């Protein structure tokens, strides 16, 4: 699939999504033509998987999300953990089968490990539920694509934070600049993201190189990888290097991935758990086009968080100039909860090419895992 096809699908989805919402609002107008405000009715949601899901609980009970969601239950295979968070948030701990049988809980948040997640998602959507889940979406690209296609065929909605059905605002802005400033095709990028972890083994999937290959890329650099795939399209070949500097886990804590795309573009993604400079999770990127360069969160003044600092540089009157500089509220990896709510409320399905877009990045992960084993460049299938 070409990069322009990716872009066009996003445009169609966003246009249809907003038209649907506008129609829903128009229907509430009074006979005099005055717009009537409609309060959203919160959807009951249960969170399944409380390892990472415990952080999601905090989001769901925040004032920002209370108009949209009501936390109804928690679920985890670890009964003690489920009981702990049930008591903390004042909701029942329930089994997955119990939740699937309950028509009063139409939405689940699934935050278990990625290996085999497609099987759980299939069980959930076949029970008539919609789902918000997380990255990495699956360890198996074919399974990931298949379950997303099944969701569309069943009229069910699966969203995740990365890649999201709608482009994150920072990437959408880069796409807009590409057209407005006639930057041409993207030809290269250097992306880096880091944090300071000193982890110990805990017996979870995070300790298993098969389930968590090249951990810094799989866990943290995945946001950058999904951004890059949305900008560059399908990859052709990858090569990865990794090391263990401080971690006590058997998995890596420092890695760099090189990707050659089918267009011939070259990209590197560096992700590390080893850097403590106070600028964690910044997801910085230098993105080179044929006729210009975009910088995202590059330099000492760039900050981590929901704001992305963007600059676009090009040649005007035979001189290099900053064409635009701005901050965008909304970065890769954020859960688009309000968009998910509206999709469920209006039954707006994800675009038809969303399964392939997710699978495109997962195939890079599969090739990366093989490269980590062999120490050689590996072709990306598909």
Largest sheet: 9 strands, mixed
- Which residues sit in consecutive blocks of at least 5 with pLDDT less than 50? 1-37
Helix fraction bin: 25-40%
CATH superfamily of the largest domain: Dihydrodipicolinate Reductase, domain 2
What's the Cα radius of gyration?
21 Å
* Range of strand content: 15-25%
The number of helices is 10
**Gross morphology:** globular
Specify the CATH class of the largest domain. Alpha Beta
* Gross CATH architecture of the largest domain: 2-Layer Sandwich
Average pLDDT metric: 90
Notes on the structure:
By secondary structure, the protein is α/β, with parallel strands linked by helices. The protein folds into two domains: 3-165 and 335-351, NAD(P)-binding Rossmann-like Domain (Rossmann fold, 3-Layer(aba) Sandwich), CATH 3.40.50.720; 169-332 and 363-379, Dihydrodipicolinate Reductase, domain 2. The protein has ten helices and 14 strands. Strands 13-12-11-10-6-9-8-7-14 form a nine-stranded mixed beta sheet, covered by helices on one side. Helix 5 (117-126) links the parallel strand 3 (107-110) and strand 4. It is globular, with a radius of gyration of 21 Å. It starts with a helix and ends with a strand. Mean pLDDT is 90; it is low at 1-37.
Question: What topology emerges from the helices and strands here?
Answer:
Elements (H helix, E strand, L loop, with lengths): L2 H24 L16 E6 L4 H8 L8 E7 L3 H11 L6 H5 L6 E4 L6 H10 L3 E4 L7 H14 L3 E3 L8 H12 L5 E9 L20 H18 L2 E9 L10 E8 L4 E7 L11 E6 L2 E5 L10 E10 L2 E11 L7 H10 L7 H21 L3 E2 L3
Parallel strand pairs: 1-2, 1-3, 3-4, 4-5, 6-9
Antiparallel strand pairs: 6-10, 7-8, 7-14, 8-9, 10-11, 11-12, 12-13
Helix pairs in contact: 5-6, 6-10, 8-10
């Amino acid at each position: 699939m070409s990069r322009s096809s990716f872009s066009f699908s996003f445009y169609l989805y966003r246009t249809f999504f907003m038209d649907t919402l506008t129609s829903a609002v128009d229907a509430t107008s009074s006979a005099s033509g005055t717009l009537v405000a409609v309060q959203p009715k919160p959807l009951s949601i249960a969170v399944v998987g409380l390892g990472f899901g415990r952080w999601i609980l905090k989001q769901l009970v925040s004032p920002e999300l209370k108009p949209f969601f009501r936390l109804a239950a928690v679920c985890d295979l670890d009964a003690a953990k489920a009981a702990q968070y049930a008591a903390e948030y004042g909701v029942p701990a329930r089994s997955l089968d119990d939740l699937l049988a309950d028509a009063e809980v139409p939405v689940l948040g699934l935050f278990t490990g990625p290996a085999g997640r497609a099987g759980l998602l299939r069980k959930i959507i076949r029970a008539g539920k919609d789902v918000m889940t997380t990255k990495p979406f699956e360890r198996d690209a074919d399974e990931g694509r298949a379950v997303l296609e099944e969701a569309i065929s069943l009229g069910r909605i699966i969203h995740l934070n990365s890649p999201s059905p709608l482009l994150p605002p920072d990437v959408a802005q880069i796409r807009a600049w590409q057209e407005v400033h006639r930057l041409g095709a993207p030809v290269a990028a250097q992306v880096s993201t880091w944090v300071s972890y000193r982890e110990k083994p805990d017996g979870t999937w995070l300790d298993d190189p098969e389930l968590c290959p090249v951990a810094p890329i799989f866990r943290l650099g995945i946001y950058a990888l999904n951004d890059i795939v949305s900008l560059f399209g399908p990859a052709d070949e990858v090569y990865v290097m990794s090391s263990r500097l401080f971690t006590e886990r058997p998995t890596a804590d420092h890695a760099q991935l090189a990707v050659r795309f089918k267009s011939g573009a070259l990209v590197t993604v560096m992700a590390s758990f080893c850097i403590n400079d106070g600028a964690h999770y910044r997801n910085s990127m230098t993105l080179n086009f044929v006729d210009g360069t975009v910088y995202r969160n590059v330099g000492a003044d760039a900050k981590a968080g929901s704001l992305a600092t963007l600059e676009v540089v090009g040649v005007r009157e035979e001189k290099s100039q900053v064409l635009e500089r701005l901050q965008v509220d909304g970065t890769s990896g954020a859960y688009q909860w309000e968009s998910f709510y509206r999709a469920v409320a209006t039954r707006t399905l994800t675009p038809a090419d969303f399964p392939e877009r997710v699978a495109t990045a997962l195939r890079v992960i599969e090739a990366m895992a093989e490269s980590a084993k062999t120490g050689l460049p590996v072709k990306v299938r598909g």
